[in-house]
Structures are given as C-alpha cells and as structure tokens.
Design goal:
single chain, alpha/beta, Rossmann fold, 5-stranded parallel β-sheet, two-stranded antiparallel ribbon, 54% helix, binds adenosine-5'-triphosphate, binds the ligand Cc1cn([C@H]2C[C@H](O)[C@@H](COP(=O)(O)O)O2)c(=O)[nH]c1=O, P-loop_NTPase
C-alpha cells in the first residue's frame, strides 16, 4: 500500500510550493509519486472553477450565486472521481500520493460558509483519511499579501473575513483528526520543507517499520 499525504491551509499558505518540493524529495529517493490537487483538472474541477471560484457570471444562476449546498456537493463530486479514478488505484499500486487540498478543505471552507460540519463530514465519508495531513498555518494578513494580485478587490473584506474563519476551522479540525500536523507557514520555504520531511520520516517511515 502506498502513502497518502495532503497539504492543507488557507489561500496562499504555500501548499503548492511545498507539495512540489515534497514530490521531488520522494522521487529523489526512488519513489513513484502522484502529485495532484483539488479542485482537480477534470471536467468536475473545471466546472467548479467556472461556477464557484471565479466569482464570475457563470456562477450566477437565476440571478443568484449557486447555493452553499450545491457548492459542497460539487466539491464532493469532484473528490469522488479523484478518489476512485486516481487516489485509490495509485495507493493500491504502492505509489506516494501527494494532494494539494482534499476533503479537509471542504470541512474548513464550507463550514466557514455556514454549512453543518457533521453534514460535511458525512457527505465526504467515501473519501479515505490521509496518512498525514500537513496544515500550513498562516496569519490571514500574510496570506492576503501573498495573493494580493488575485484578490477580488470589490469583495476584499469578505475574503479576509472568510479566510479568518477558515484558519480557525482548520485549527479546530486539527484537534479532531489525528492525522493533521500543524506547521508554521511564516517560516522560510526551505525550513518548512525540512520540517515536512522530518514529519514524513517520523510519522510514516517509523510507523511502517
Ligand atoms: N514560506 C513562504 N514564505 C514566503 N512566501 C511563500 C512561502 N511559501 C510560498 N510562498 C509564496 O506565496 C505564494 C503562494 O504560494 P503557493 O501557491 O505555494 O500557495 P498555495 O497555498 O498553493 O496557494 P493557493 O491555495 O491560493 O493556491 C507564492 O508566490 C509563493 O512563492
Ligand atoms: C478542495 C476545496 C477547495 N475549496 C476552495 C479553497 C480555495 O479558495 C479554492 C481553491 O483554490 P486553489 O487556489 O486552487 O487552492 O477552492 C473549497 O471551498 N472547498 C473544497 O473542498
């Protein structure tokens, strides 16, 4: 059986950067690595990016943004395909799967949008828990600095408010899901990478001896 590692955190926390570095580290050790992300690049992920993420006109149906419930179901549908078509087969083949976001994002973000956490956990119950989740914890003001070019100015305050709630939710989830390990995302990129490698060696390699 392979190893399943997930990077989580608010927008701009450094997930993609660390996921790429960790994938390289495993490849240099001779492992077969699958580097993936959610929303995916499949038709489901593309639909989400058009309907949910751009904040654009396509996300407006009958004059209103799509409902929070529909949003959560879209992320879960994308995840079901991700799990069945890529994650599970790759793990069965003994590969290392590294995902930039997973169901923990649904719990943190859709909970912040007002949906019930238990409903969200049940909705995503089909998704196997990761072996290790690296939560890159970052203050929102640093996150905004890092993604400033991408923020939607007109909704800037809403974005800050949401990101604050998401960060709090992630920290609460870390108390509930024992596979989540918190790392300070303010540190330099290389130091964070070293901390993640130390966690992988301790939490995964040790456990499998
Ligand atoms: N430890 C760090 N210190 C300073 N800047 C960083 C650090 N890690 C990443 N960055 C920079 O922050 C920006 C966002 O990084 P990255 O895309 O990896 O974050 P992300 O969590 O994947 O973002 P998003 O969720 O919004 O896609 C990039 O410009 C990246 O170079
Ligand atoms: C998987 C997932 C993601 N989201 C949100 C979190 C981010 O704001 C975007 C994805 O942006 P990225 O730059 O590609 O990371 O989608 C969410 O609300 N729920 C989810 O399940």
């Amino acid at each position: 059986m392979g190893m399943f590692i997930v990077l989580e955190g608010i927008d701009g926390a450094g997930k993609s950067t660390q996921a790429r570095m960790l994938a390289k580290w495993f490849e240099n050790k001779g492992y077969d690595v699958v580097l993936t992300k959610e929303p995916t690049d499949t038709a489901f992920g593309k639909l989400i990016r058009r309907l949910v993420l751009t904040g654009g006109k396509e996300g407006i149906i009958d004059g209103a943004r799509i409902s929070r419930e529909a949003e959560a179901l879209l992320f879960a549908a994308d995840r079901a395909e991700h799990v069945k078509k890529l994650i599970e087969p790759s793990l069965k083949a003994g590969k290392v799967v590294i995902s930039d976001r997973y169901f923990y994002s649904s719990l943190a973000y859709q909970w912040a949008r007002g949906l019930d956490l238990e409903w969200l956990i049940n909705l995503n119950a089909f998704a196997p828990r990761a072996d290790l989740v690296i939560l890159l914890d970052l203050p929102v003001k640093e996150s905004i600095k890092r993604i400033n070019g991408r923020s939607i100015k007109s909704e800037f305050d809403k974005i800050v408010e949401l990101q604050k709630k998401v960060r709090e939710n992630y920290l609460k989830l870390a108390e509930r899901f024992e596979e989540i390990r918190i790392i300070n995302a303010l540190a330099p990129i290389e130091d964070i990478h070293k901390d993640i490698v130390a966690l992988v060696e301790h939490e995964l390699f040790e456990k499998r001896k």
